[in-house]
């Protein structure tokens, strides 16, 4: 059974397996490969040209390159030696904890409304707002590092659309819950409906068929022309109850698609214009926070609570509570370093602590929407396991992409990392934190050291209703998002994400593990998140350049896995980190 053994009669919340036969074959393959590497070394050493011989220096260079790659090969396969796989038991989680599940804060980060279009951003936001999780325990924060009122307007539109989208998703178990992704899929009947696209529909009171179609086996297949008229008032001839539901379901689907397209058109139109109209400006007080001098590098802190989950009158179209939704643009000034995404994440940590203070945090990039509405439950199966859950600082899901070409020219799928490397790291203490699709324990992200005698309490009932108004919370939060707040503090050093490194996520995950915490890699068959991979050579090179530079910087710093991790994390995990830290120096023997 592995981790998560039964205790006090409780069933485990997760299971760990090793796939023994696969591991045996892999180890046999690795041993055979190592024999081949050693034979190459022996050949190079025994056939070295004599002094003054032709090609002596070229031979020496080849020997050096092959020694490097042989050692790197050994390092890589050693880290993959103990691959483990996880599975969760969500039914046991819900049965055991029920309404005592903890609050979850979700961070979505964006920085530029041109590179990251607002419609893409709000699709990610809507996908996590609609998680299959109690809405009163869910809070979603959008960090807009560009400080754009266009992004704020898009989020405002999304908050209105969410009132019908969330109940629609939960009623019909929609997957994925990104509207764009869902409506872009091939047209298929929703769960619980018949295979009939449209049935015999008449205009109320007239008995006249709407539109043209085909009669087959007692059913009228209606063309999509004239559907807007049909939405107003409908009658189904001699309808069995299930047929009536089918018609209503299909019409509701069409209505949701229509609402989404209208919202998308309004947002795109405003973005194309490049400014907020006076009419839109009057619809929400938040627009007054933008001044004429504000730009992406120089603006005040802006925090707006668009949906207050504490407000019992703020409900969706079915009368159910909504998740809290917050817009945040931290203050930026030219004379103060903003520390890129790490600075934004740390500001979100402080602001969310003031507003919702969920003990579990999920952070996702704005281009990586939720593809599985039960991912929160999967992560909590690890955190809330009575036996081992208190040891885990974060649960990392793989980064998967839905825009890859058939041949995947630039290896954007990260297949080796997702399907091999991280399973090996998981067997050695846990994977790297890769910056997106990761559930964190708040206290570990805020600098707390692991103690075997301390077991954090994640169980929580209904969040306490505070008398503090949303306006006061916004005012307090603006101070926490000020650019001077972190001066002479431990933020970016011992608290929050680390500063000063291009791969702030990797160095933060390493420091968390060096404080005694473990991490989990969970790679479900049904992918939890789908995003956008680089599609051009320049984009791929830029991304790998940042990764290689950042990881090499870690190798040369005090956070070198073999120095910082000595005595704190296992040798296998140190070797796993070094695989990526050695990407940059591996370019030299490659060029040779």
Automatic annotation (TrEMBL):
- Work out whether the entry's keyword set contains Cell membrane: no
Q: Which domain of life is it from?
A: Eukaryota
Q: How does it sit in the membrane?
A: Multi-pass membrane protein
Chain segments annotated as transmembrane: 24-45, 57-75
Cellular component, GO annotation:
Golgi membrane
Keywords, sorted A to Z: Cell wall biogenesis/degradation, Glycosyltransferase, Golgi apparatus, Membrane, Transferase, Transmembrane, Transmembrane helix
The Gene Ontology terms for molecular function here are:
cellulose synthase (UDP-forming) activity
Hey, which family's this protein in? Belongs to the glycosyltransferase 2 family. Plant cellulose synthase-like E subfamily.
Protein function: Thought to be a Golgi-localized beta-glycan synthase that polymerize the backbones of noncellulosic polysaccharides (hemicelluloses) of plant cell wall.
Q: What is this protein called?
A: Cellulose synthase-like protein E6 isoform X1
What species is this protein from? Answer: Iris pallida (Sweet iris)
